[in-house]
Every structure is written in structure tokens, then in C-alpha cells.
Write a structure and sequence with these properties.
binds NADP nicotinamide-adenine-dinucleotide phosphate; seven-stranded parallel β-sheet; 14% strand; 346 residues; alpha/beta; 12 helices; two-stranded parallel sheet; single chain; 39% helix; Rossmann fold
Length: 346
């Protein structure tokens, strides 16, 4: 992304522009990437701006690329929005293998569909979403390269001083959501090995948009005069614009058996300290709840940084943007991350 970042972000149009701004590296990559692009699970919190970033990169590279985005479109507004940005929306329930079989082929696939919240009490639905859907798409897109979103929650909780889990840290998922995410990885790995399909698994820790995310959750609680839970003592997060860029660049990493890439920010931050900084920026008192545990979900993004460079937005920038956004009554998706949960129960 361009080095010129604004002091604050005034509205959703400006926010979407920043979140979908393609880096020079991404424009170059789109220029040489053969074939069309399918984004599966496009209508979620990240998919819309990721699809916009892909479209802008292809346009700036001057290449013709058909980009289509698949979802059930539970929120119908994103259907029209994507269409207006030259991304073709296709309604499909990816759990339905026959419907998946009718989707157009594409040489490049970004797989983003998944289920997290509501797992507790309806575990089977999460397992189906996170393992049956990958099986459907892996069998349909056998000749594609597939970048699949996973999560840093497949790793064990670790002490902050240990530097975060690297891609070589053995998975040790806590709770059924995280276990089903490892299931998603294993299903994709199975089909990658069986058919030679090139795959890259992205273990993402907390994308930061101003309408949701860890910083948004903290800022909203402070703004409402509510306490901030510090049970999860520390976290990593990355500006969603950078996560979008890195995820698309990962198309060139796809391999069989799958490659694995951590995507998160460089900083490991203390929830307490970040809350204090947001409070200072908002000129609000901050109160806390819970007791800091010794371990947290922490990933090491050294590999992504070595390949793609440092994320464009630093933690202090994201803190300032978020505090001002929430203070000004900026839009919220009202979808809490539940970053404080360290029991694996969502
Ligand atoms: N955002 C983060 O900070 C973060 C962190 C770690 C991991 N991740 C992972 O990264 C991926 C993208 O993140 P996100 O925040 O954009 O996720 P998200 O908000 O849950 O979006 C995924 C979208 O996939 C679609 N989908 C789910 N099941 C489907 C089905 N059966 N058929 C068709 N579409 C389906 C849903 O849209 P419809 O209801 O319209 O179908 C949903 O909104 C997810 O897998 C997520 O778990 C995200």
C-alpha cells in the first residue's frame, strides 16, 4: 500500500478505499497471475474489501480478470455493492455439494467461508461448515490454486516472552472451534496431497477494520463506560488492508503439500496498555475486569514480513484511527471478536 496514510478516517467510503488499496507488489503479482479469481465466502467482514483490492490490482495492472465472489449473501446489500465494484456475485450455499459443482471454474481461489460464533451448543454445524465445505470446494477446484483462511487459534496458547508461534509450531487447538479449523486444514491438505492441488493455509490473527476487531471492541467498551476484560493479556493484530494484500499475494505460495503462512502484525501488544492509550485518545476513564492469564494466542509473522515487507499501518496508527472513529460515532458491524476468551469456547 502507499506510504501516505491519513491522520484519521472520516467515513466508510474512505475506510473501504484504504482497506482495498493494492500494494505495488500486489499489482505486479496480478499482472503475471494467470486465470480468473473466485472468492468463496466473500460477503463476510473481510471478503468485500479483499475482492475490491483484487479488482483494483487487476485494473491497475491492466489485465482482464474475471473476479467472482460466492456467498449465501445473508446480508443482501453486499451483493449489489460487489456488483457495483465489478466483482460478480454468485449466490451459493457451499455446504451443498451439488450447488458447488455448478460454480464456474477459476484458476485462483481464495477460500474464506467459515463458522466460529455459536459453536457452543451447536458444535456439529461448526464442524460441517469448517470441514464439509472445504471438502466440497477442494473436490470442485481440483485444478485451481487455493489460498484458504485458517486461524492462529490452531496453535497452543503461549507466553508472550516466547515470541509467538511460528509456522513450524505443532498445532494444539483448544476447544471445538479451533479443532474444527485444524480439521479444515487437514481436509484441504488431504485433497492437496491426493490430487496435487496447490494450497496455502493462512493462519490469521485478528484483522483490524474500524467497524469491528479487537481495537474496535476495546474502544467501544471504553466509549460506553464499560470495563475492558484483560483475561487474554496480549494479542497480535494486522490492518485489514495489509491482510488483504498479503492473502492475495499468497496465491503465489500455493504448493502441494500445502504451504502455511502466519498473517498478523509485528507488534505483540498488552490489552491493558492498548486500552489505556485508547482511553487517553478518547479522554475517557478506563476500567478493567478479569486477571491477566499467563498465556495468549500469539503468532510470529516474521516469514510473511520477510516476503511481503512490514504492514503499512502500525499499531499506534490503528489505535488513533479506531479511537477517533468510535468517538465520532462511526459505523459498527456489532460483531464482537470475543478476544478475551481463552477457553476455546465460542
Ligand atoms: N476477521 C478476522 O479477524 C479473522 C481472524 C482469524 C481468522 N479469520 C478467518 O478468515 C476468514 C474470513 O474472515 P471474516 O472475518 O471475513 O469471516 P466471516 O465474517 O465469518 O465471513 C465469512 C463469510 O462466509 C460466508 N459463508 C459462510 N458459510 C457459507 C456457506 N455455507 N456458503 C456460502 N457462504 C458461506 C458467510 O457469508 P453469507 O452468510 O453471506 O454466506 C460469511 O459472512 C474466516 O474463515 C475467518 O474464520 C478471520
Amino acid at each position: 500500500m502507499s506510504a501516505t496514510l491519513p491522520d484519521e478516517i472520516g467515513d466508510e467510503e474512505q475506510l473501504d478505499e484504504l482497506l482495498s488499496r493494492p500494494s505495488g507488489k500486489l499489482v505486479e503479482m496480478m499482472g503475471r497471475l494467470e486465470g480468473d479469481l473466485a472468492i468463496l465466502g466473500v460477503a463476510g467482514k473481510m471478503g468485500v474489501t479483499l475482492a475490491m483490492a483484487a479488482r483494483r490490482a487487476a485494473d491497475q495492472a491492466g489485465v482482464k480478470k474475471h473476479i467472482f465472489g460466492v456467498s449465501r449473501f445473508s446480508n443482501p446489500a453486499s451483493y449489489d455493492f460487489l456488483q457495483s465494484r465489478n466483482v460478480e456475485p454468485i449466490r451459493c450455499d457451499l455446504l451443498d455439494a451439488q450447488a458447488v459443482g455448478r460454480l464456474p471454474q477459476a484458476r485462483n481461489v481464495i477460500f474464506m467461508a467459515g463458522r466460529k460464533f455459536g459453536t457452543e451448543g451447536d458444535e456439529a454445524a461448526t464442524w460441517a461448515a469448517n470441514t464439509v465445505v472445504p471438502s466440497n470446494i477442494a473436490q470442485h477446484y481440483v485444478r485451481s490454486r487455493i489460498v484458504a483462511f485458517s486461524t492462529g487459534c490452531v496453535y497452543p496458547l503461549v507466553r508472550p516472552a516466547d515470541g509467538g508461534c511460528t509456522e513450524k509450531t505443532p498445532p494444539q487447538p483448544v476447544g471445538e472451534y479451533a479443532q474444527s479449523c485444524l480439521g479444515r486444514e487437514r481436509v484441504l491438505e488431504h485433497f492437496s496431497r491426493a490430487h496435487g492441488t496447490p494450497v496455502c493455509l493462512l493462519r490469521l490473527n485478528y484483522a483490524i477494520d474500524l467497524r469491528y476487531g479487537v481495537l474496535h471492541d476495546i474502544a467501544r467498551r471504553i466509549h460506553a463506560g464499560l470495563s475492558v476484560d484483560v483475561t487474554m493479556p496480549t494479542a497480535n493484530a494486522i490492518w485489514q488492508g495489509d491482510a488483504n494484500n498479503q492473502s492475495l499475494l499468497a496465491l503465489e505460495l500455493c504448493a502441494s503439500p500445502p504451504d502455511i503462512l502466519n498473517i498478523t502484525g509485528l507488534e505483540t501488544f498488552s490489552i491493558r496498555q492498548v486500552a489505556m492509550e485508547i482511553g487517553r485518545e478518547m479522554k475517557k476513564e478506563v476500567s478493567f475486569a478479569g486477571r491477566e492469564a499467563e498465556t495468549a494466542y500469539l503468532s510470529n509473522s516474521a516469514r510473511a514480513t520477510a516476503m511481503f515487507g512490514s504492514p503499512s499501518a502500525t499499531l499506534p496508527t490503528m489505535i488513533r484511527w479506531t479511537a477517533r472513529w468510535v468517538q465520532a460515532g462511526g459505523a459498527s458491524l456489532d460483531k464482537p471478536t470475543h478476544f478475551e476468551v481463552n477457553t476455546g469456547k465460542y
